[in-house]
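ok new one. same drill as before - structure tokens go in, u give me an amino acid for every spot. 291 of them this time. try not to just spam alanines like last time pls lmao
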């Protein structure tokens, strides 16, 4: 973890503390049985270190008993551009029916699929031929919406505002480049830094959602939380891995819903398979003390 700021591969290893913890336990036990004392100590230390890292990305504070205040049900789904299992996505969306839905990797074909969700009369769609098309769907009107390109990237981010009771909430949906290779790693890091600055600039409550291509154990994710003045809605709800869905032994949470401090998450779930390599995520957010 100390080396995660120095190289993309070192940071990638921080995404799998659960797997590293479970993977080193058999070695610790085996060395103990074989009475290989120092090897057992070393393996035990690795179990402890990885376990502590795992817990550091799973905060336990939660106030799910809060019921009063403006409430929003929000979800994010990376549908994967070449995924043709549209029926599974539509079935999930129709069953979940969040108030606001961010959809990632939207091309022209997926844009047509989104048109079938007629319970979302308000849609912002930027379809693209690469894997970075994006859409934001809502059951209620947007007071403002725009598409930005953070950190001089070619990757679109949607910023929109909706009104809940007497409050204005800003929704930011985004999908940075995957941090594989030094160039994309640097671009992803600049994107997250610009995202934090954008979040900090907003008046009122903020929700950031999307495939952020970073896990809770990355130091750059920590920077986003601190500098963007947001918190992880996963707090108190468990591990909630979302990717890669076709290799579940490697599951890690990279699809996120981040919320302003003071807001309360009363539910946080991972959805069923939708044919993508990602699972959708959903949350119910309440502001118990609206300003």
């Amino acid at each position: 973890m100390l080396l995660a700021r120095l190289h993309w591969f070192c940071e990638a290893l921080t995404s799998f503390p659960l797997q590293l913890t479970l993977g080193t336990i058999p070695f610790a036990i085996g060395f103990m049985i074989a009475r290989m004392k120092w090897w057992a100590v070393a393996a035990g230390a690795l179990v402890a270190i990885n376990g502590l890292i795992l817990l550091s990305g799973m905060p336990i504070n939660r106030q799910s008993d809060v019921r009063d205040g403006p409430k929003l049900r929000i979800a994010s789904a990376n549908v994967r551009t070449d995924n043709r299992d549209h029926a599974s996505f539509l079935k999930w969306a129709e069953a979940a029916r969040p108030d606001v839905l961010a959809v990632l990797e939207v091309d022209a074909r997926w844009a047509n699929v989104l048109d079938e969700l007629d319970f979302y009369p308000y849609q912002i769609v930027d379809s693209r031929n690469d894997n970075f098309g994006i859409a934001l769907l809502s059951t209620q009107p947007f007071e403002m919406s725009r598409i930005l390109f953070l950190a001089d990237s070619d990757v679109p981010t949607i910023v929109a505002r909706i009104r809940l009771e007497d409050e204005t909430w800003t929704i930011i949906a985004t999908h940075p480049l995957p941090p594989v290779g030094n160039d994309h790693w640097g671009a992803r890091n600049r994107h997250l830094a610009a995202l934090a600055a954008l979040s900090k600039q907003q008046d009122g409550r903020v929700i950031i959602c999307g495939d952020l291509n970073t896990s809770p154990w990355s130091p750059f994710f920590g920077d986003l939380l601190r500098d963007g003045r947001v918190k992880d809605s996963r707090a108190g709800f468990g591990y909630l891995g979302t990717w890669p869905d076709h290799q579940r032994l490697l599951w890690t949470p990279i699809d996120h819903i981040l919320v302003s401090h003071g807001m309360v998450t009363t539910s946080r779930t991972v959805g069923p398979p939708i044919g993508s390599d990602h699972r959708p995520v959903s949350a119910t957010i309440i502001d118990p003390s609206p300003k």
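The chain has a mean pLDDT of 91. and btw The helical segments are 8-13, 17-33, 37-56, 86-96, 108-114, 182-201, 219-228.
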